[in-house]
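Sharing a chain and its predicted structure for anyone who wants a worked example. Both blocks are below, sequence first, C-alpha cells second.
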Amino acid sequence: MHDAHTVRAPSMTRVAAASLAGTAIEFYDFFAYGTAAALVLGPLFFPTFSPVAGVLAAFATFGVGFVARPLGAALFGHLGDRRGRRPVLVVSLVLTGASTVAVGCVPTYESIGTAAPALLLVLRFAQGLGVGGEWGGAVLLATEHAPAERRALWSSFPQVGPAVGFLLANGAILALSATLSDAQFASWGWRVPFWAAGVLATAGLWLRSSLTESPRFLEIDDHARVPFVEVVRDHWRLVLLTAGALAVGYAIFYSVTTWSLAYGTERLGVSRTVMLTCVMAAVAVKGTLMPVMALLGDRYGRRPLCLIGCGAAALWMFPMVALLSTGQPLPMFGGFLGALLSFATVYGVIAAYLPELYEPRIRCTGAAFGYNLGGVLGGALTPIAATALAAHSGRVPWGVGAYLTGMALLSLGCFALLPETRPVRVAAGRPVMD
C-alpha cells in the first residue's frame, strides 16, 4: 500500500499539471475572442451597425463557438470512447490553436467587406469544436487516474485551467491597452494575443507528450460502437438535466467576463483597464478556490455543493448588477467576486460529478456533451440576452439580474433531480469507484 502511494503521487501531479496546462491554453484561445468581441470586434467587423447592434453581432460570432462545442463533444467523445482519452487532447489542442492564430490574421470589414465576419464565424466554429473536445479528454484523464477518495480534488485542476487561460488572455489585452493608443489597439494590438496562441499550443503539446492513457479506459472490454447514439438513446434525460444544471455556471462566468466588459466600457464609460482589472482580480480568487471546493466535494458530496452554489447565485444576481452599475472599482469587484464564488462552488466538483454519472464506455461522450450543451444554454445566449436587456433599462440593468436569477433557479431544479455520486462503498478500508 505504501508503494502504491509512492508511485501514485508524482503520476497524479504530472497528469494534473498537463491537464491544467492544456485547458488553460485552449480556454485562453476561447477567452481572447470573447474579450475582443466585447471591446473591439463590433466596429472593426460590423461597422455599418449601430454601436449596440455591433456589439450584439460580435457576441453572435462569440456564441457560434458555443453552438459548435456540443458537436465537438460528440466528435471527440467518439474518439475518446473508442480510441482513448489521450488522442483527444492532442487533436483538440492543435485545432483550437490553429484556428485562434488564424483569427488574428483575418482582415477587417474595411479591407475585404462581408468576407471578414464570415471568416470570423468559420474560425470561431473551429475554436468551439476544439474546446468542446478538450474538456472531456482533459477531465477524464485526471478523473480516471485519480484515487476515488480524492477524485474531485485531482479533477478540479483542469477546471482551474479556464481561470488561468482567462488571466493570460486578458492580461495580454490589458498590457496592450495600457501601452498602446486606442488607434494602435484597434489597428493591430488586439491581434497579438491571437498570434501568441501558436506558441502556447506548441508548449501544451510538449507537456502532454508524456501522458499515459487512462487506466480506466484500458480496462474497458466492450467499447460502444457509436457512443453518441447510445448516449442520446439511453441517457437523454441525464444529458438534458446536466445541461440545465450547468447553464448557470456559464451564464455567471460570461456575464462577468464578457458582457460586463462591454456594458462597463460602452454604457458606464469605465476604462478598459479598470474593467479588465476588476474582472481579472475576481477570476484569480475564483481560480484559487476551485480545489478548496473540490476537497469539500470529496468530503461532503458533489450534489450538496452544487445546490449551495446555485442557491447562492440566485440570491446574488440582483446585488451583482447593482454593484456593477456604480462604475466604481471596489463595488464592481465585490459584485463579480460574489458571483464567481457561487460559480466555483458548483464547478469545483463538476469535473468529478459528470463523469461519475456515466458508465465508462460512453463517459467521454456523455459527460462532454452534457457539459457543452450547458454552454449553449448559458454561455452562448447570456451576452446577447444581457446586452439586449440592458439596452432597454436604466442605469441599473435589473432585467439582466432577473435573467441570471432565472438561470440559477433552473440549474438548482436540475441538480435537485440528479443523484449523488460520491463513492461510498469501502473495500479494505478505502473507498472504491462505483
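Comments welcome. The radius of gyration is 21 Å.
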